[in-house]
Design goal:
Blueprint: H1 15-24, H2 27-39, E1 41-43, H3 44-51, H4 55-67, E2 71-76, E3 79-84, H5 89-97, H6 99-102
Antiparallel strand pairs: 1-3, 2-3
């Protein structure tokens, strides 16, 4: 029995991947994710400095990425660092930007 190419019987299966792509669909968030791939982890202050954006703006973008499960936090005393939390991102971003652009 062949599975049809377009099967809408279980649209729920598309919710999570669609939400992942929505969270990535902003230039600043893509920049943050690619930066985390290169640096492995960093704090909001470092990102703010690199992006030349207000801390509140960077934090809002990080919250969207965190809500989608793309990034997570690691606490070291008072410092909070962000890291990539979804392994699929490490496959998606190099496809979008090319392999050499995403290596540290």
């Amino acid at each position: 029995m062949n599975t049809p190419a377009f099967d809408i019987s279980d649209l729920k299966q598309f919710d999570e991947p669609a939400n992942l792509l929505k969270a990535l669909s902003h230039p600043i968030r893509l920049c943050i994710v690619r930066g985390l791939m290169r640096k492995k982890k960093c704090n909001v202050s470092y990102m703010q400095e690199c992006l030349d954006l207000p801390q509140s703006t960077v934090s809002q973008h990080l919250q969207k990425l965190r809500s989608a499960g793309i990034v997570a936090t690691e606490r070291n005393g008072l410092e909070v660092n962000y890291v990539l939390a979804d392994q699929r991102i490490e496959q998606i971003i190099p496809i979008l930007f090319g392999e050499d652009d995403c290596e540290s």
